[in-house]
Each structure stands twice: as structure tokens, then as C-alpha cells.
Amino acid sequence: MKKVLNRAPEVTSTFWIIKVLATTVGETAADYLSVTLNLGLSVTSYIMSGLLLIALWNQFRLKRYVPVSYWIVVVFTSITGTLITDRLVDELGVSLITTTIVFSVVLLVVFALWYLKEKTLAMHSINTAKRELFYWVAILFTFALGTATGDLLAEALKLGYAQSALIFSVLIAIVAGGYYYFRINAVLAFWIAYILTRPLGASVGDLLSQPAKNGGLGLGTVETSMLFLSIIISLVIYLSLKQKQPAPTAD
């Protein structure tokens, strides 16, 4: 019988670390390309969407989990999801409250369709092209929703980046506590935490990169992006080497 390979990684502490770092890069890289390099949101969106499609093509071609390919897709999805929200808010004038509500509804629809078709939303069941397609669409909208939610708290409600990051950290801790101590559904806990890590990473990215007059620490988008990218690359190399190690055999 042919073994069915999973197309997504195991959910470990390393997974969550890279995920938060990737969301931070999504925020700072989008700001760097559209603002610092003055490419604008439209041009940056077209470029990142094109790169995301290329990365997805390679990911589907592999038909299995490969750390480098998978996390490249996550980073480009993070940047693209950020740009979707930024364009709606900054170019089309859609409010952050509206984008938060709309993306919440869209994400619920994606999850509903996914479950109706496949009867599962679990990470360990991403072993067909159809399930992986639902998976990446859901992830794209978690990034768009997370961007809207993070900006809503930090900017529209004027809580600031540090306080917003603290709020999302507490919410993630509550979800983790619910999973470990009260045994709430693992799939539900995963997706709630996945959504919350996006505004957490965005708040951390803005806190580090934005100038002091805007409530940040003034590290800059280039420095912040390069710092977090370096950590991501190091962790992905570690995962790639670990994946290539032969499984231990019983004596």
C-alpha cells in the first residue's frame, strides 16, 4: 500500500516560533517594499502575489512537506495577506472594523466549505492537493484578518503596538491553557492560535520597526526584516537537516 505523505509540518514549538517570525516579516517587508522603496501598495501586491503563486506551484509539485518550500510559501502568504488588508484600508478607504468583520466571515466560509468537503480541518490530514488548497486559502485569510485586527487595536483604537502585542499574547496563552488543562478541541485551539499569532507578529514588527514618534522602537523595517529572516532561515535549515536524518532502528 502506497504511503500518503503529509504536506504540512508537525505542530511543535519550532513551528510556532517560525510562524510568529514569519508574520513579523510579513508586516515589516510589506512596509519596506511599499513605503521605504516607494513601490506603492499596488505594485508591491502584484510582485508578492506573483512570487506567492510561483512558491505555491513548487509546493504543490513536491506533494509532501519540505521545510524550505513550505516556509517560503508562509512568508509570501504573510506579506500578501498584509497587503490585501493594507490596500483595502489605505487605497479603498475601507474601515478596519469592516475589514475585520468581512475577513472573519470569509474565513468562516472557507472553514465551512473545507469541512463539508473533507470532514476535517486537522493539520495532520493535509495529504491531498484539495486539502492543501483549502489550507493555503485559509492561511491567506488568517493573515489578512490578523493584519486588520492588529491594526484595529494598535492604531484605530490607539492602544499602541506594545499593549496590542501584550493583549494577543495573553489571548494565545488562554487558548494554550484551554487546550492543555481543559482539553478543548485540538483543531479549534490550533486555528484560533494561528489567527492570533498574526496580529501578535504584526504588533511586534511595528513595535520594533516604527519610529518613536509612532510608538515604535525605531529599529527600522530593513533591520527588523533581516533579523527575523535570519532566524527563520536558521530554523528552517535545522528542520531540513533534521528531516534528512535516518529514523532510528530497533535493535
What secondary-structure arrangement, pairings included, does this model have?
Layout: H1 13-36, H2 40-62, H3 67-91, H4 96-118, H5 129-156, H6 161-182, H7 186-209, H8 221-244
Helix pairs in contact: 1-2, 1-3, 1-7, 1-8, 2-3, 3-5, 4-5, 5-6, 5-7, 6-7, 7-8
Instruction: Give the overall silhouette.
Output: globular
Q: State the helical fraction.
A: over 70%
What is the string of helix and strand elements? Answer: HHHHHHHH
- Count of discrete structural domains: 1
Strand content: under 5%
Task: List low-pLDDT spans.
Answer: none
Largest sheet: none
- Can you count the beta strands? 0
Number of helices in the DSSP assignment? 8
Keywords: Membrane, Plasmid, Transmembrane, Transmembrane helix
InterPro entries: DUF347 (IPR007136)
Pfam family, one: DUF347
Protein name: Membrane-anchored protein
Can you walk me through this structure?
- This protein has 251 residues and is mostly helical.
- It has one domain (13-241).
- Helix content is 77%, strand content 0%.
- It is built from 8 helices and no strands.
- It has helices at residues 13-36, 40-62, 67-91, 96-118, 129-156, 161-182, 186-209, 221-244.
- Helix 1 (13-36) packs antiparallel against helix 8 (221-244), helix 3 crosses helix 5 and helix 5 crosses helix 7 (186-209).
- The longest helix has 28 residues, at 129-156.
- The two termini are 26 Å apart.
- The mean pLDDT is 89.
What is the gist of this entry?
Keywords: Membrane, Plasmid, Transmembrane, Transmembrane helix. The protein is an all-alpha fold. It has helices at 13-36, 40-62, 67-91, 96-118, 129-156, 161-182, 186-209, 221-244.
